[in-house]
Amino acid sequence: MGINNKNLFFRVLSGVVLVPVVVFSFILYPTLIGLVTTIVMLASWEFIEISSLELKNKKIFKMMLTVVVGASALLYGFAIEAEYQGILPFEAEIVFYLAFFFYSWLVILKIKDVRMAKKLISAGAISILYISFFLSNFYLININYGYTMGILALVSIFMYDSFAYFAGLSFGKHKISPNFSPKKSWEGLIGGALGTYLFIIVYEFIRGFLGYENIIGPKKAILFALMVASFDTVGDLTESIFKRHYHVKDSGSILPGHGGILDRIDGILIVTPAWYFLLRIFWI
Fold first, then answer.
1. Residue 166 and residue 201: Cα distance in Å, rounded?
2. Model confidence at 8: pLDDT above 60
3. Cα–Cα distance measured from residue 33 to residue 121, given in angstroms and rounded to the nearest whole number
4. pTM for the full model?
5. Which positions are tagged coiled coil (predicted)?
6. I need a surface site. Which of 19, 60, 76, 97 has the fewest CB within 10 A?
7. How far is CA 187 from CA 73, 76, 165, 168, 223, in A?
């Protein structure tokens, strides 16, 4: 089996194993909180690790920092639910501010080198906003629109990645950003957008057939598909910039064929808030 075929095999295998687990976690809100918190911790660990490779003997300390970031996703999940129930006396988003405070305090107490402290605090700010807060938008989608909408948002991103990958592999000639990601092509983006549009239409048809409200019609599906294509691409290129800056090929190696967790969710992080935003501006 060639290298490319072997890599594709592991990509498919890990997807077949993990996707059903992830999707079914959306059905119950507590399991969604557990899923988001776990992913946030794994992804933030990877980001903190690659941003501070010089600190080889401080694994426990970096794990403490990771726990703070993960706690922001966990507590926000419960806080936003309490806010919607009218029993929280403040905005749930204050959780992320407090997480940054405690994260920075730990760095100030433990790290004496200014350059390294700056690196860790920068990594913490990015992890809390870019990873924890952005991914936590799944809570808002779930609470306001139900778990079927959350699954649609998630799987649409997976479908875009798959369609874009194969379209780019077959037809890709015009590169989007050769400096940051030589394999990303406009042909892949267009193919991914078309495939995502068809998936949304089919998903909404099946959901309507099963008795659920059909929320995204054919016209709105065009905007959602274009949003997924553009925002997913920005998410992928953003993470590519981070990896090139830190001189690493992958954010980690936990997922066979995919690299790290952050490699797999780079598009999800950017698309999820935009998906919720589109739902809100359409007054859905």
1. 20
2. no
3. 25
4. 0.91
5. none
6. 60
7. 36, 39, 10, 6, 18
Q: What is the mean pLDDT of residues 252-276?
A: 87
Same-domain status, 77 and 201: no
CB 186 within 8 A of CB 176: yes
- Residue-by-residue DSSP string for 134-191: HHTHHHHHHHHH-HHHHHHHHHHHHHHHHHHHHHHHHH--SEEETTTEEEEEHHHHHH
Give residues with Cβ within 8 angstroms of 281, minimum separation 6.
Answer: none
| 185 and 71 share one domain | no
* Closest listed residue to residue 162, CA positions, set 199, 216, 206: 199
What is the predicted pLDDT for the residue at 13? 55
Print the domain residue range for 122.
Answer: 19-145
Q: Where does residue 251 rank: exposed (0-12), middle (13-18), buried (19+ CB within 10 A)?
A: buried
Say what the alpha-carbon torsion angle 241, 168, 233, 235 is, to the nearest 10 degrees: -50
Same domain, 135 and 170: no
Token pair of 279, please? 């739902």
Going through the chain in order, the beta strands assigned E by DSSP cover 175-177, 181-185
For CA atoms 268, 48, 7, 3, the dihedral sign is: positive
**What does DSSP assign to residue 255?**
B
